[in-house]
Amino acid sequence: MKVEIKKVGINGEGIGYIDHLPVFVPKAMIGEIVDIKITEKNKRYARGEVLKIVSKNKDRMQPKCHLQHVCGGCSLMHVRYPKQLEYKREILKQSLIKYAQVDPRRISNVLPSEDIFAYRNQFKMPCGIDEGYLESGMFLPNSNYFLGIKKCIIHDKGLEEIRREIMKVLNNAHMEAYSHKTKKGLRNLIVRGFDGKYQCTLVTGENEIGASLIQKLMQIKGMYSLWQSVHTTKKTTEVFGKKVVLLAGEKYLPLQLEDIQLQISPRSFFQLNTKQAIQLYRNIAAMIPAKCNLLVEAYSGIGGISMYLKDKAKEIIGIESIKDAVVNANQNAKKNGCEHVSFLCADAADKLIYLSKKRNIDVLVVDPPRSGLDDAMLDCILRSKIKNIVYVSCNPATLGKNLAVLQNRYRVERIQPIDMFPNTSHIESICLLVRK
Binding site for S-adenosyl-L-methionine: residue ranges? Predict the structure, then answer.
């Protein structure tokens, strides 16, 4: 049946209507008329698959990756980049109106990424056997079918080169893919790199990585450190095992971010697009008023944002629940000579309740996971007297739901979207909230 696409969905799919029922159609664009096959239908919505594009959008293009239709990671690669930015603002706008009735005039245009391809500084890829060889790749959505990926064009070029070399060495050493029966083999390959230096983690079963294999891997150009994490748990979304052990090389991967030096451990979070991370930090800083007394950052990770804001407050306190990240963050503060910046290992809501009772917090910066702020955190903020909040979000839906609650006490001043992930439907945004 023919459907006209009227809207863009949160995952980048087109949305049309059949008898007032919304139909979600991946890879269809606004304004297109498409012949579709219904693949799923219930009382609230339906899903469809494009059979033929009857009327094509002028901004449609041929995806540069031949696996785009299979992988699903780059759901907007068939859309020209300027139009991708429009779609992302629309996705954000729809969520904020739906959940929090935010005035769309508060939402600025999306800041574009300097690089549209080869921007990603890290990958975490499952491993399996493909055409008789051990390969890094992906499992097809909702299946156990493994697909080896020879080349990913959104990965940094050096990252792709070192991935090929690592797989070559592992194949020559006859490393096997992980098996739940034997609890042996390579399960995931994780590599992160900046400025030609790469940190590699082999997530394996109960394997002992021999000295000869370690030596050969460390001889790969750009290999800065090699780690192993044993992970034998079934049915888990965790990529790492409980421990990560250094096999060779340096303990921390260095990153120069303007005038800040950061040291990053394998499990520490850092933005996947380095150039856009600087854009993000600059725009967070721009939303903070003239130098304040106390700034608190919740979900502070390795302290990158707090370090960048070092000149914005007389005192900065970061709160993070992951112990390794807190140790990492305090080392970064010391390395950068920031005596007025410190990090505490605690639950964000619990520690914020304590701090807000004892101290006057001028600015709170929050950069929560995709699930957003939990009820305890929202309740704590509403009961506090925090003057300004800078909310960094990677999920428009949870941002909208959180703003619906926070607007009881705070006014949404402005929202700046930033494109961290070109060719995908993901959109990062910074929201400034001022206490009423």
Answer: 271, 299, 320, 367
